[in-house]
Amino acid sequence: IRDWEKEAKKKVRIEMDDPSIGRRKTIYDLASYVSSGPSVSDILKLSIPEITAEPKIRYSVSIGMPGIAQIDLSPLTQKIVGCVIGEDVTTEYPWVHVKKDIIEDNIDLHSESSDFLPVKDEISAFPDTKILIGYAPSLYEKAQFYICLTEEGRNAVMRSIQTQREDHENRVRNAVYKSPGQWHDLGSGAEVDADVVKNTRPLLMVSTADLLNVPANLTDRKADEQRDGYIELLPYRQTFENVWRKLVSRSTQVIPRVRHNEAQTGPSIPANSWFQYLYEYETVDLSTYPEDKIDSLKDFLRRCTDEMCDQILMNSMWDIYGSDYANLVRNEKDTQVPMPISYKEHQSYYDGKIIVDKVINDLCWHPFWTGIAIATYTQHATSEHLIGPKTYDEVLLAGEGNNRILIWSFTDCLSPKLILECPREVTSIAVCPLDSTIIVGGCANGQVVVWHIPGKIEQVEAVVMQTGAQAKYSIAMRNLMTWMRQTKEMSLICPVAMSSLKYSQKAGITQIIWVPSHHKVDKNGRIVSLPEDATVGDLSWQFATASQDGTIAFWDLKCRLAEKDASRHNRRKKAKRSDITTQPLSPFKILDRVFKPDYILVVQYPDESRRVVITMLSMYNPKFRKKQVEPFPVRDDVTIRKYYRPIIEKADYAMEPKMLVGTVEGEFGCITWEGYEFATDVSVNRETARWLWMKRTHDGPVTHSARSKYYHRVVATVGGKIFAVWRDDYGEPLVWKKSSVRYTACSWGSFRPTVLILARVDGTVEIWDFIVKSHEPSFTQSVSGRIITGIYTHQLPLEPQCIGFCDFTGSLRMFTAPRVLLTYDVSDIEWMKKFVDRQVQRIKEFKAWQKTWRETNPQDIEMKKKLVEMEGEKKRFEAEEKIKVDMVETADRGITPTRPTARRKPWQFLEETKARWMSMEVKRMQRVILEQKGLRKDVLERQRAPILRLRQEARTKKRKIREILNLQDKIFEETVVFLFPEQYQERRETLLPPLPVPAVDRRLTIDEFIKQEIALRKEGVFADPDEEIIYNFLEVQTEALAKMKSTPFERTFNWRKVLAQGKSGKIGVYRTEEVT
Predict the structure, then answer these.
(1) Residue pLDDT, tens place only, 247-300
(2) pTM for this one?
(3) Do residues 749 and 757 touch, judged by C-beta distance below 8 A?
(4) Would 318 be classed as within a structural domain?
(5) Would you give the distance in Å from CA 261 to the centre of its chain?
(6) 1015 lies in some domain
(7) 3-state DSSP call for residue 128?
(8) Is there a single domain that holds both residue 502 and residue 387?
(9) Does residue 741 share a domain with residue 692?
(10) Alpha-helix runs per DSSP H in 348-431
């Protein structure tokens, strides 16, 4: 066999050693200079017909494996068969499987120029459907690929790969896990050996069997034959201890004789069932039987017919040779080993140079391309719970902060494709559903920013084809010109427009949602529906933004500027000097600094003028159907991008003036607006929204919401430690659960409409599948060590489907969903709708029953209300008394009284701030007056110190005297009891004042008695303090009797049960004594 590699290396070495190659030929040395026409030898050569030699197969010998040949593959052929250098094959992973059909199609299409012509026959004779191709770069010849043409060569390559992988794993394992070395005893071996745990008896062999597949012998387990057969019955809240039976070991020399009997050792459930069912029967011809056999057959049938029928009936009803364990299981999957369900991490996207100490606050996907994510980074996420002062300067962060939005692609996890810059921190992001080149962001100061990126991603991803010399020259030029500053960076994109600061919202933007494309909100707040035949250019480009200042603004990217705004923009445009290096202007540049909302909704609390702090906003926007377009991927891979285009069709949906709003105090509700019938002269119309319903369910800010794409009326929200599932037209949560830790994000599943994904602050993900169970999550998985700031499922179909988790480190971690969660069934949508309707009906029926019960039991309700009021009155009285005592003590000490510690309302912060400011101003005025009069505070304090000391001593003396006077009655009583114990009882009886006799001699009810006693106490009819104490006791006694009457005590004592327990305990004690 000819070794082409060695010959090529030898040839290159000879050519490099040739001294004639060192000097470049001049024009005089060329053959064309000697003669202008062809020579005689050249003419004779042309007359001889050229014989083209058949291409020979260049088998590789240096690899040491048979059946491996070298081939040359052009870049086009590499792309067709799927072995592109740098993408499909690399020096780290050089081997790849290629379908045999693709290679044969290439040979058929290019029968004369195909790169596989030298190995055409071997490829056709190859028996497998896939061929192994390897990549091996060479410095001496062009051939960089090897192909396995025989099964022996392929198997040898696979064995070599497996051997290399095992060697690498062993090296890594030996580097991590160190094997212990030899022990060198230096005198402490005996002590160490004494501490080593050793086995003093042989280990017990325990064998287990699967009851579903192996025979099982069930026997009775008697308590007398077990060591732990008896237990002690203890009262409640006592330690449970076993009563151990002592084991008595006795030796015996009697050995039972072992008898082997095949009939007794036969399996009860034989594995073979052929003898029962797989039998053969041939028709018997009775005409060939003699008369004696026919008579014997008749006699047999006459005698055994009944018994045979019974046996057949028994076999049809009960199969004694079959296993009943498998028949007891309804579902076959219950007999199988449960498979673990979990998300598998695919890639992580993070750039530490651009994002430093920041996290992802919002993320959106490209509407038409797969694998493109747009993420905005902030100092803190919305779902984070911050305590204490801020650790950063807001002014510095707003003016000079690194405020950037990154556009990531699945093809590159180390560096983003584009970087969107903004002068302010961007808190929310959204992409236009009709034009993916328009990106809208909301800033922390309330402004709206617009980016326009037509063709930017394609420009960055464009591959410049260069030869080796060109690439080398480019690298050399860049190294020599490092002192130059790069004037234009393709990946950095500046905003084309920002909204007017005057008309923008006054606090951070929390969420951006798009208005349905076939509807629009005019400047008067009225909803206008567009016709079905409207072109793409006539569709609406409106979006709504929610702000923390309690407003919702509607913006229109197709708005027409007013005359004064247009003239101001034109003057600024004319004043700007033209530059040939600038890029073409975007059509949205005219909106820069003059963009303002069309309509603003103000959201306030019901019956209050205080605005809510909006944290989330939700409105249904029907999605367009999407169709995949070329180029189609060759294989299913997440990193291979798919392209889609929308099918513009008007959905069967009429937009209503309704929105779902979540607040920072945990409220969630639905608002509506009416709009104006006539135009006003105001530049931006405002309207106070009206609440349709509002419910406070969450115990923290409502940070995230997710609307199901299969049933758009279902919305899930998370806030605090509670998540809830709502129907947008009903004001009660259908399902809500409270966890031990805070929830931070939520999202519905991409394929199954019953799956809800929740993220927690401890980095755990909960997957709820309501069709499986609705009281607890189906399974949980820990994907991060700390908080997860967001969950975003990929909108377009992928194989496998991906979901992004935003980590606390600021990285976007992409996971692939398990196969169990990717099964789609149309019946699940109907089940989810019925489940939601059933929950609504259940809540309505419960409320109706509750209302009926209240109407039929008014007395019990009134009694409970009165008891609650009395308890509240008592607590209020005690609080007032405590405040009075505190005020007296603070007055005696000369300290300014402080307000009682209580839970303040959120809006009381401003009032307390004003009070503190006034106290600071008073102190400042006092200090100024002292300075003007020439007095010093330390001198005054030193002068009045003796007076304060005398006052403090007098107050201490009075307090001690007051304590002794308060204890005089107790001291007297104790003295009387000690000296005259027989007189104490009589004296106590004479001290009790007589009870007042009612005017009417009748028994009062509990309510009348309570009212009468409270009225007497309010009127102040008690002449003696002891009388007041007695009546207070009677009041408490009345409340206790009422409570005992409402909840009567039921005796649980059972004499027979006690006797049975005592008898069983006595028997157990006797048996224990017998054993001992």
Answers:
(1) 656 555 555 666 666 554 444 555 554 444 445 667 777 778 888 888 888 888
(2) 0.55
(3) yes
(4) no
(5) 64
(6) no
(7) coil
(8) yes
(9) no
(10) 394-400
